Amino acid sequence: MTYDAIVVGGGLHGLSAALHLVRRGASVLVLEARRVGAHASGFSAGGVRTLGRHAAEVPLALESLEMWHRMAALTGDDGGFRAVGQVKVAETEAELDGLLARAATMQAAGWRHEEIVDADELRRLLPAVRPDAVGGMVCRRDGFASPLRTTLAFARGARAEGVAIIEGARVSGAERREGAWCVSAGDAEYRGRTLVNAAGAWGGRLARHLGEEVALGFSAFLMMLTDRQPPFVFPVVGAAGRPISFKQTDDGHVMIGGGHKGVASLETGALSIDVERLGYSARTALELFPVLAGAHIVHAWGGIEGVTPDELPIIGPSAVQDGVVHAFGFCGHGFELAPVVGDIVAQLVLQGATNRPITAFAPGRFKGRSGLEVAAGSALAQPAG
Amino acid sequence: MRVVIVGGGPAGRSALAALPQAVLVTRPAVAWHAEPGRVWVEEAGTVRSEAFDALILCADEPLLLSALGCVFEGVRPGVDGAGRTSVPGVFAAGLVCGATRGETAAAQGRAAAEAVGSAAWPALDGAAQAAPERLDPVALASLLEQPLGPGRNEAVLAQAALLGPVLPARPVSLAALAALTPERPVPRPVQPDEGAL
After folding, report:
1. Are A222 and A256 in contact (CB under 8 A)?
2. Res. A168: pLDDT tops 80
3. How far is residue A270 from each of residues A6, A119, A124, A157, B34, measured CA to CA in Å?
4. Which of A79, A118, A136, A318 is the most interior residue, by most CB within 10 Å?
5. How many other CB atoms are there within 10 angstroms of residue B119's CB atom?
6. Closest-CA residue of chain B to A174
7. Which of B134, B122, B125, B124 is nearest to B161 (CA)?
8. Other beta carbons within 10 Å of B133
9. For chain A, what is the radius of gyration of the CA atoms?
10. Neighbours of B186 (CB within 10 A)
């Protein structure tokens, strides 16, 4: 059988692409090296965030947010999505000035989803926040969801509509023969007219195999959960001046993440946490919310994410191969984008083009540069997840 | 050689008697996490690490061994007659090996202490029973909050068989952890990848 598309990677983006493809009438095979949602898709902080996005991501993030608000219709399950809003706290006047400048830039571009709030409104939104916080920025329709539940919902939805998903199928090769991609995984070979590279942190390896060098490294973003606490915070919270992502789940656990990294291996998928860096995340959380003084950390973990030099994802047709579409390297903040990126991939596969603005994410944009150093962008400091 | 003994029961005391220079971690100190060459301890509102060349784990804390990558046979660590686990430099004795009689535990602790420094290391296989279904991090947190005991450990080790080590072995005070790192660490750079399929 020759599939219309073979998707490499059973994470959230691969499964979203598969669901959108099958809904547009394509036959689809998903090959997943381990299990569905085995890496970042099942381990992220689950932030559904338009707040603070790079300008290039804003149109996609806003469209995707609308899809999040209809998630149950898309996948059959709302993924645990809670539209509780996201708030970025300014701890100093200088940080608030930075948020004001950002809001002015966004409004000049016609985007009004980011709202500045003063200290009084901040305290109404976050009664337990440190008393000297001076204000913040809020996106009231943002929120959070359960990453694993969402990923499994996309998988169920895709399977229900006829997508074949093979787990434990590590891709070891792909070559173009007679107008189709022949993809090897284990002892088997599969044929597809189009190859979708949604291999996450491993996406650079598949691109390299196909003759396309993409500047992609990886990071192991750390997160932790406290024991159950009485309800004290409803929105997802970030900080303007330091990396943190912070939210309280329905059952009272407080999830703390935001960008500190451990060390991972792409060979084994193993990851080691960094206790000192967890300590700094704990310090930030405690300084923002002194009410946590008696809490205990009961779980810590990390997720492996592909990271590009400009901290923007790779989305688009291959610059060197026919019949290849890339969607990987989401730099720790791809969760919210998954619904719309899946549809973009489906358009690219089936129509050869998309009506969404994706030029900034072109796979070939790093040609001629070396290294993975992060360039300054137009986003606020973005918490991973 | 720096030796750390975790657990102050018969096995730990017996190991300490044979290795009086060793560092003993026992209540009220709690060993809450382990990584290669270091055990993390919480005591009196602070968090510290104890570096080790050899570790003798005697407390009933199998998740510490899991964190170090030791193989398990069911819910017990795989060990040889001297308590060597599958990870060089890491020994298990006493309660964590299922020894309920003080005499047996003490003998195991002594055997492990006598084997510290030996070059030989066994090749051990093991297979913890993997859970049929993966839990998400919030559900894992709920599981880790359950009272310590064989049921909780078995369930966590079954998740570890699917996911890799489930951390930490014991809850740690957020305030104590926060006190460990007063300054913002230098961001860790993106890890490069030159690998192939």
Report:
1. no
2. yes
3. 27, 43, 42, 29, 15
4. A136
5. 5
6. B197
7. B134
8. 9
9. 20
10. 6
How confident is the model over A123-146, as pLDDT tens digits? 999 999 999 999 999 999 999 999
CA pair distance A206, A222, nearest whole angstrom: 25
Token pair listed for B44: 């009196």
| Residue A374 pLDDT level (bands cut at 50, 70, 90) | low
- pLDDT tens for A181-225 read 999 999 999 999 999 999 999 999 999 999 999 999 999 999 999
Summarised one tens digit per residue, pLDDT across range A203-212 is 999 999 999 9
CB-based contact A282 B190, cutoff 8 Å: no
CA atoms of B146 and B153, how far apart (whole Å): 10
How many percent of chain A have pLDDT more than 90? 89
Chain A contacts of B35, Cβ < 8 Å?
Answer: 272-273, 275
Q: Which residues of A, range 37-96, sit inside 8 Å of B by Cβ?
A: 42-43
- What are the structure tokens assigned to A258, written together? 């935001």
Q: Which two tokens stand for residue A182?
A: 């022949």
pLDDT at A385 over 60: no
Distance CA A194, CA A176 (A): 10
Q: For tokens 């460990």, what's the residue?
A: B180
Secondary structure (DSSP) of B19-31? -TTSEEE-TTSEE
The tokens for A177 are 């023969």
Question: Among A39, A221, A278, A330, which would you mutate to test the B interface (most chain B Cβ atoms within 10 Å of its Cβ)?
Answer: A278
In order of A212, A315, A335, B195, the CA distances from A326 in angstroms are 11, 5, 16, 18
DSSP A137: E
**Pair of tokens at residue A162:** 């006829």
Strands (E), chain A: 2-8, 28-32, 47-48, 86-90, 115-118, 135-139, 143-144, 164-167, 171-177, 180-185, 188-197, 217-226, 236-239, 245-248, 254-257, 261-264, 271-272, 296-307, 314-317, 324-328
Q: Around Cβ B84, how many Cβ atoms within 10 Å?
A: 24
Set of chain A residues whose Cβ sits within 8 Å of the Cβ of B191: 217-220, 263-264
Burial class (CB in 10 A: 0-12, 13-18, 19+), A361: buried
CA B194 to chain centroid: 33
